[in-house]
Specification:
Blueprint lengths: L2 E6 L4 E6 L20 E2 L14 H9 L6 H14 L6 H11 L4 H10 L17 E6 L1
Parallel strand pairs: 2-4
Antiparallel strand pairs: 1-2, 1-3
Helix pairs in contact: 2-3, 3-4
Bound molecules: zinc ion (ZN).
Length: 138
Protein backbone atom coordinates (compact mmCIF):
# COMPACT_ATOMS: atom_id res chain seq x y z
CA UNK A 1 0.00 0.00 0.00
CA UNK A 2 1.45 3.34 -0.96
CA UNK A 3 1.88 5.32 2.19
CA UNK A 4 3.61 8.66 1.97
CA UNK A 5 4.84 10.92 4.70
CA UNK A 6 4.26 14.65 4.50
CA UNK A 7 5.38 17.41 6.79
CA UNK A 8 3.21 20.37 7.78
CA UNK A 9 5.32 23.35 8.76
CA UNK A 10 2.43 25.04 10.53
CA UNK A 11 1.86 22.11 12.90
CA UNK A 12 5.52 21.00 12.86
CA UNK A 13 4.19 17.48 12.47
CA UNK A 14 4.70 14.63 10.01
CA UNK A 15 1.51 12.92 8.81
CA UNK A 16 1.15 9.66 6.97
CA UNK A 17 -1.18 9.61 3.98
CA UNK A 18 -2.54 6.64 2.15
CA UNK A 19 -2.45 7.44 -1.55
CA UNK A 20 -4.80 5.35 -3.62
CA UNK A 21 -7.35 5.53 -6.37
CA UNK A 22 -7.79 9.00 -7.81
CA UNK A 23 -6.26 10.68 -4.80
CA UNK A 24 -3.24 12.69 -5.80
CA UNK A 25 -0.38 13.76 -3.60
CA UNK A 26 -0.88 17.36 -4.73
CA UNK A 27 -4.42 17.35 -3.33
CA UNK A 28 -3.37 16.46 0.19
CA UNK A 29 -4.14 18.77 3.04
CA UNK A 30 -2.97 18.81 6.61
CA UNK A 31 -5.61 16.92 8.65
CA UNK A 32 -5.18 19.33 11.54
CA UNK A 33 -4.94 22.82 10.08
CA UNK A 34 -5.99 22.25 6.45
CA UNK A 35 -2.80 23.63 4.96
CA UNK A 36 -2.46 22.43 1.39
CA UNK A 37 1.20 22.85 0.57
CA UNK A 38 2.72 19.93 2.43
CA UNK A 39 6.32 18.92 2.17
CA UNK A 40 7.17 15.37 1.16
CA UNK A 41 9.33 13.60 3.73
CA UNK A 42 11.85 11.32 2.03
CA UNK A 43 13.59 9.96 5.09
CA UNK A 44 14.42 10.79 8.65
CA UNK A 45 17.59 12.46 7.52
CA UNK A 46 17.99 15.77 5.79
CA UNK A 47 17.15 15.68 2.11
CA UNK A 48 19.28 18.71 1.34
CA UNK A 49 22.34 16.60 0.59
CA UNK A 50 23.08 16.29 -3.09
CA UNK A 51 24.48 12.81 -2.65
CA UNK A 52 21.79 10.21 -2.25
CA UNK A 53 22.92 7.29 -0.21
CA UNK A 54 20.98 4.34 1.14
CA UNK A 55 20.62 3.56 4.81
CA UNK A 56 22.66 0.45 4.21
CA UNK A 57 25.58 2.51 3.07
CA UNK A 58 25.28 4.72 6.13
CA UNK A 59 25.24 1.63 8.34
CA UNK A 60 28.30 0.29 6.55
CA UNK A 61 30.08 3.54 7.28
CA UNK A 62 29.29 3.22 10.96
CA UNK A 63 30.31 -0.45 11.12
CA UNK A 64 33.64 0.74 9.86
CA UNK A 65 34.24 2.87 12.97
CA UNK A 66 36.55 1.70 15.70
CA UNK A 67 35.20 3.20 18.93
CA UNK A 68 38.52 2.74 20.61
CA UNK A 69 40.28 4.76 17.95
CA UNK A 70 39.72 8.52 18.44
CA UNK A 71 40.85 9.27 14.90
CA UNK A 72 38.38 6.79 13.49
CA UNK A 73 35.57 8.34 15.53
CA UNK A 74 36.49 11.86 14.50
CA UNK A 75 36.47 10.78 10.87
CA UNK A 76 33.00 9.23 11.27
CA UNK A 77 31.58 12.40 12.84
CA UNK A 78 32.96 14.53 10.04
CA UNK A 79 31.59 12.16 7.41
CA UNK A 80 28.11 12.12 8.93
CA UNK A 81 28.01 15.89 9.29
CA UNK A 82 29.10 16.20 5.69
CA UNK A 83 26.41 13.83 4.46
CA UNK A 84 23.70 15.62 6.38
CA UNK A 85 24.95 18.96 5.12
CA UNK A 86 25.52 20.16 8.66
CA UNK A 87 28.08 22.64 9.83
CA UNK A 88 29.86 21.39 12.92
CA UNK A 89 30.71 24.83 14.23
CA UNK A 90 34.10 26.01 15.44
CA UNK A 91 33.97 24.34 18.86
CA UNK A 92 33.26 20.88 17.48
CA UNK A 93 35.75 21.33 14.66
CA UNK A 94 38.33 22.17 17.26
CA UNK A 95 37.39 19.15 19.38
CA UNK A 96 37.63 16.85 16.36
CA UNK A 97 41.02 18.27 15.56
CA UNK A 98 42.17 17.38 19.05
CA UNK A 99 40.73 13.88 18.72
CA UNK A 100 42.66 13.45 15.50
CA UNK A 101 45.78 14.68 17.25
CA UNK A 102 45.40 11.77 19.68
CA UNK A 103 44.15 13.57 22.77
CA UNK A 104 42.12 11.75 25.40
CA UNK A 105 38.52 11.55 24.09
CA UNK A 106 37.04 11.57 27.60
CA UNK A 107 38.77 14.80 28.46
CA UNK A 108 37.57 16.43 25.26
CA UNK A 109 34.04 15.15 25.79
CA UNK A 110 34.01 16.58 29.30
CA UNK A 111 35.09 19.98 28.06
CA UNK A 112 32.44 19.90 25.33
CA UNK A 113 29.77 19.12 27.90
CA UNK A 114 30.87 22.10 29.96
CA UNK A 115 30.36 24.25 26.86
CA UNK A 116 26.86 22.86 26.39
CA UNK A 117 27.54 20.15 23.81
CA UNK A 118 26.45 17.24 25.98
CA UNK A 119 24.69 14.13 24.83
CA UNK A 120 21.47 15.44 26.28
CA UNK A 121 19.68 18.54 25.10
CA UNK A 122 21.10 21.13 27.40
CA UNK A 123 21.20 24.91 27.14
CA UNK A 124 22.35 26.06 23.72
CA UNK A 125 21.28 22.69 22.34
CA UNK A 126 20.01 21.68 18.96
CA UNK A 127 17.99 24.76 18.06
CA UNK A 128 14.75 24.10 16.17
CA UNK A 129 12.51 21.48 17.72
CA UNK A 130 12.27 18.32 15.67
CA UNK A 131 8.86 17.68 14.16
CA UNK A 132 6.35 15.47 15.88
CA UNK A 133 4.88 12.43 14.20
CA UNK A 134 1.15 11.86 14.02
CA UNK A 135 0.36 8.16 14.49
CA UNK A 136 -2.75 8.33 12.31
CA UNK A 137 -3.19 7.42 8.65
CA UNK A 138 -5.10 9.86 6.48
ZN1 LIG B 1 -0.94 21.58 9.77
Amino acid sequence: MPIYEYYCGTCNTIYQFLIRGSRKAEDLQCPKCGKGDLERVMSQFSTSSSKSRSDDEMAADMADVDENDPRSMARAVRRMADEMGEDLGPELEHALGRLEAGEDPEKIEQELEEMGFGEEDGPGGTGAPSPGRDPGLY
